[in-house]
Amino acid sequence: MIERAGRREKGTGRRLSAAPALVCAALTLSACGNIGRFEQATPTAAAAPVKPNRVVQQTPTSEREHERILSSYGGAYDDPKLEALISKTVERLVAASERPDQAYKVTILNSGAVNAFALPTGQLYVTRGLIALASDTSELSSVLSHEMAHVLAKHAAMREDQARQAAVVTRVVTDMSTDPDLTALALAKTKLTMASFSRQQEFEADGIGVGIAARAHFDPYGAARFLTAMERNAALKIGKTALDPRAQDFTSSHPATPERINNAQTTARQYSSPESNERDRETYLAAIDNIVYGEDPSEGFVRGRRFLHPKLGFTFTAPDNFTLDNTAQAVIGVREGGSQAMRFDVVRVPAEQSLGDYLNSGWMEGVEKSSTEDLNINGFPAASATAHGDQWQFKVYALRFGSDVYRFIFAAKQKSTESERNARETVNSFRRLTLDEIQAARPLRIKVINVQPGDTVESLSHRMSGVDHPAERFRVLNGLDAHAQVKPRDRVKIVVD
Q1: Predicted confidence band at 271 (pLDDT cuts at 50, 70, 90)?
Q2: 375 strand-pairing partners
Q3: Range 260-285 average pLDDT
Q4: CA 321 to chain centre
Q5: In contact, 217 and 427? CB cutoff 8 Å
Q6: CA angle, 133 then 22 then 409, to 5°
Q7: Where are the domains of the chain?
Q8: 92/425 Cα distance (integer angstroms)
Q9: What single string gives the DSSP state of each residue in 107-159?
Q10: Inter-axis angle of helices 199-215 and 222-235, to 10 degrees?
Q11: Is the predicted pLDDT of residue 207 greater than 50, yes or no?
Q12: What is the DSSP letter of 434?
């Protein structure tokens, strides 16, 4: 069944209470209760299960994880067409599995990341970013059956134990660490992380999943095709630093290696038959037509080097050669090559406390109190200070915008004229959005169209909006290799605003 959990609260007064443990290490924060995001996802009551005799049994741990996942991935994405397709697909897969009594509950996450995972209870999660990448129902079924296999083989339970142990270790590191390399790395890695499955567990889940999908009469080669799509999607990120938070997606815990693709193809050959080759492409494309692509503007979004939050009414622009990512806890920027990084978030500062006093209040080690300076940035009261580590230099700004205080933290391996200018220009670009800008902010969407005579990959990719590498992105989204061409009457996906 599809989990119809609530989306994020729309009131601006909602704030996250505390970031995950890994985030606490960022910039040697001595306490992380003040690290917030702009809004919080608040789960609501789930819909009744499709079949009353199969109900996912919630545990206190799974409920906490569910809420944490919703908070970290933008809440649930409500789309009746998609929910109906996934419910029907899961029912077919369950009936074809070795444990038709095992209950599953699927939540579509409102995130452009390409990710899917499972909890031991049978709660499955798939992002709309992954759904947009898949080209047909057989590819989506390969992801769902793979995650079901992790539950059936009890891999998810093993991973939960690993994650629990890792959390303890991380907490110790957080409390004890003054290592600037570790803390600078934590600055960029603010996506929800889960303990990875072992290589053997991934291969086992691939084998089980392909078998389930084939017995459900889906094309067993869907897994190999989707693994290939994942690999090509990840390749579009080549050239970005390893600190890039966008690496924290499905490929991080489910590496799409050539060996996995080859093994998936070998397994598929064992099941290939006329009865098990359904791709269901037309139905799938109809279901994903108009799905939101990338970030949801209502929660703040990135366009190139610019971050905009229409609901809260502000924007800023990152420096040249920076890649911005709007994570669950903060907006993170990383310079090409990894020599500089930045973090933007909201913090709790009492109205009676000056921003200079906040910067010197001990939340960050190595702050030079003598460097504290009161500022006025585009009419907003602000303050700045510098801080030093053994290998990283920091410039910190706090800016009061209405009743909120926003924090810019810039990290550079070496203080330079460029790093100082980057920090100053970014903060000075913070301003209110105009009414026209707020009204114009709308999400990118997947549009399914018919190829017309004369259309080419190049001409269709030119119709894409708001994406990098449009020609390559078009090919990846449509499962086209480097030499494939489109034909009239083909149905293809493009990204439009």
Answers
A1: confident
A2: 382
A3: 86
A4: 21
A5: no
A6: 90
A7: 58-290, 312-438, 443-494
A8: 55
A9: EEES-SS--EEE-TTSEEEEEHHHHHH--SHHHHHHHHHHHHHHHHTTHHHHH
A10: 130
A11: yes
A12: P
To the question of domain 443-494 being in CATH 3.10.350, the answer is: yes
Sign of CA dihedral 332, 333, 336, 337: negative
**Distance between CA atoms of residues 493 and 290, nearest Å:** 10
Helix pair angle (470-477, 222-235), 10° resolution = 170
3-state DSSP assignment of residue 6: coil
- Mean pLDDT, rounded, for 33-42: 36
Q: What is the model's pLDDT at position 437?
A: 92
What CATH number labels 312-438? 3.40.1000.10
Q: Which of 284, 329, 292, 322 is nearest to 306 (CA)?
A: 322
- By CB atoms closer than 10 A (0-12, 13-18, 19+), residue 182 is middle
The Cα 30–Cα 400 span in angstroms is: 22
Q: Strand pairing partners for 41?
A: 8
Q: What number is the average pLDDT over the span 386-409?
A: 92
Q: How many residues does the chain have?
A: 497
> Hey, CA dihedral for 104, 107, 108, 109, is it positive or negative?
negative
Residues with Cβ within 8 Å of 235's Cβ and at least 6 positions away in sequence, in order, are: none
> Is residue 278 pLDDT above 90, yes or no?
no
- Looking at every residue in the chain, the average pLDDT score rounds to 79
Q: How many whole angstroms separate alpha carbon 91 and alpha carbon 88? A: 5
Rounded to an integer, what distance in angstroms lies between the CA atom of residue 220 and that of residue 177? 48
Give the pLDDT mean for 185-195. 41
pLDDT, residue 168, reads 37
Average pLDDT over residues 225-234: 91
Task: Of 267, 220, 216, give the one whose Cα is nearest residue 90.
Answer: 216
Among 33-37, 86-90, 278-282, 411-415, name the one with the lowest average pLDDT. Answer: 33-37
Pairing mode of beta strands 292-293, 431-432: unpaired
Distance, CA of 213 to CA of 136 (rounded, Å): 13
